[in-house]
Design goal:
homotetramer; about 250 residues; mainly alpha; two-stranded antiparallel sheet; 11 helices; 2 strands; globular
Chain lengths: ~250, ~250, ~250, ~250
């Protein structure tokens, strides 16, 4: 940056604005280069697939509670962003790590994809851990997954990571006795890995995609909803100690 | 600070630790001097009166939602602190401002406390605004208020601001047709004003007092409660638009 | 939302993904309707014009300090979002409020734009307040402003609010004895007002536009930079009290 | 909680206020019981030993940057709390985990403290990892450590965990070829472990102790310091790409 000029990754920002989309410039900031048209199209799909999920998301709940307290818009959004943790969006990072390590190991050791997939599933079954990026409490066949995988094929951007991800999905029945569908976190993990993104940027996709919704929720809560309403007394069950007297302090 | 030595407001921190309480050192950081024994006793009461309020507080709700997402402890506490806004703890600041301006004006213009109180109430009634520090959705006679005022009298720390606060309370019936009890925010505002605290530090008392509880809630939620549970579907009412088709983009 | 289906403002999200851009869906969430092609193009420009501003932004500094502490990505981004306050991005809201009230008053009272502009400037000069949306510490002729106004004209989206904003700029010399350029906050305020956005959503544009950069900074700081380095001792000047002894507590 | 009554861990809050200190009630919230006088004294020391560390702390820097942006007090404090991560206060948790696992293993396997200490140091040396709770960039002999350990002995609260912590310190020379002093994080970890606190509450002590200072910094920055000042241009070195032209988009 210098007076009257802003340079982003070597380009004058003013030569980009009006010519390149928000998704393009997100790609530029995160990768250092402008995307091709395929990559640009894919980025827009990746950043919109997680756009909204109604009140059924802890980041939205946190945003709305804070927004009900008489705070500026950004404070409520900030609280919602805090909620994007390992159990809420974090599976993208974790799944991308598994896929990137898997594909890297396949290349080094010339392991076929079926075998690598079995090794991963075996390992998770043995350690009794959930496989990140698979299964969803509500969606048995996540529509977002199908859409994103479809676009990744149309744009010829899917590769070894998507292949491994789908192979894992097809073998979950065998290892876990029930089908675990590749969820939207897993799909984003696979596609961004094929596009060359570091797995440690995984949460970035989820954060960007949820921000417009968090802003909409904060705005609605702050200006159009009622202020904070105490939960119904009859619904709260006190599970603490019975009432007791404060003792006199004795001894040491 | 220098190697092996930490100076706080001129004192070696090691000469303070073990001799002075947490409440004392909070006073030192905020005022620049150590408190007298009366001030020390009052500080402890002020910092503990708002300690907890069960789940019935948006800062606790925000903390718990974030804590359910697989984040480190401080991230959940940070979201709870964000919620301490104008409608949740913020009345301390607002009430202290009114009281400090009122007392300052009383001194300058030699106005008696009854008249000043009436002017303030008249002003709020005319502008149809809620008087900060008065009334509570649950407590008609806030036990925390009585306790704090009592201690402020015992320690001889109450003065013109507490007097104005109590006068306002006694006259609310006349101006608002119902009794508005001085609530805990108003009591803290009045007492800290008599102790010489700037009203802009008002929220500080509420933040400090709520922190141990927010930590306890985050700890309990993260390690002993179930992970985030979606709200019951049958309880969510969709009030948005009816389903519709995405149109082809036409014209400009 | 229902199992295997996500509805946004009446549309099936899956009919939107791959067809509409991130900017389009941000518009949909905030306005309830999909944008026209002109509005879509304008949205992308509005959301990218503030993309980055190097280290010269307190939100970036806050993000980087937090990112250096061993925290997950979202915690650092959350701290950066907290910084988007009245003095950092907040001028969009404030300027949009002035312009929306100005244009509304012009219509009601049939006041010409020159006169309305003079009334506003007079008011700010009399109250010795800074006019939000005008002037910049670095850019005397903000290139982002020119670009955005140009696109708003090309897309025929500029109207009475942009006209008032430019009139205000042209008259600043007369009222403040120096030229105050319409800055990027002011330009966004004017154009979004002409597009029909509520001024209370003003900060939303700034938050969305800064998020990819905050993520890039957090990622770079956490994984490629050195951990937190104490400031150079020789550069810190202690301006506090001289060292003193902790007194014995005496009397009350 | 019920109207006009607030119950904390079985006690009426009003029977506690004015009788018990802030440190006492923090202990009550975190442990479920009131502390003895020794425990109460120790708590106050633990919660004040980390009170302040000048500008030399990333939580303070983050708080001050956010406070300079025109935000309410709690927003700046919230950003500072976000910074209390693995590399800033987080060593308390990590060190307490090591000590609690070590003492538990000593009891089960009847291992003497010297041998357990050697096993731990060997393990960290082999894995080339830093031992949490030992060493400090500035303090070669952390005065806070000595003070806290001293009080833990006076109050007869120190036990097996403190013994293991001190044994580890005495053996660092042998394993790492330089003396690593037990730092304040390690001391808090050892003493709170002897008091029976779960290691997962470790950061809670650091958060509580830093809050009054974060509030003081936010207050000072917001009301008495200059607004955000851009870093000196001459000090920023642009290490990005050389300026280049935005290409026309070609091919896919």
């Amino acid at each position: 940056m210098e007076p009257n000029k802003i340079i982003v990754r070597g380009y004058d920002l003013m030569d980009l604005v009006g010519k390149h989309s928000y998704a393009d410039l997100t790609y530029l900031l995160w990768r250092g280069e402008l995307p091709s048209q395929s990559q640009s199209h894919m980025m827009d799909a990746l950043l919109t697939a997680c756009l909204e999920h109604s009140l059924n998301a802890p980041s939205v709940d946190a945003t709305r509670f804070v927004a009900s307290c008489g705070v500026p818009l950004q404070a409520a959004v900030s609280a919602g962003v805090s909620a994007i943790g390992e159990l809420h969006g974090g599976a993208i990072e974790q799944a991308a790590k598994i896929l990137q390590e898997g594909v890297s190991s396949m290349k080094k050791t010339q392991t076929p994809v079926n075998q690598m997939s079995e090794e991963i599933l075996q390992d998770y079954r043995d350690r009794k851990q959930r496989l990140p990026g698979y299964g969803h409490p509500t969606h048995t066949n996540d529509p977002r997954t199908r859409k994103l995988i479809e676009i990744s094929k149309e744009t010829h951007l899917s590769g070894a990571h998507v292949e491994l991800a789908l192979t894992l999905e097809s073998q979950t029945d065998k290892f876990f006795r029930k089908h675990l569908t590749l969820n939207v976190d897993g799909a984003i993990a696979a596609i961004t890995s094929d596009m060359g993104f570091d797995w440690r940027l995984g949460k970035g996709f989820f954060i960007v995609s949820r921000i417009p919704g968090l802003i909409a929720h904060a705005y609605e809560q702050a200006y159009f909803d009622k202020p904070y309403k105490a939960p119904d007394w009859s619904e709260i069950v006190y599970t603490g100690l019975a009432e007791r007297k404060v003792p006199d302090r004795v001894g040491e």
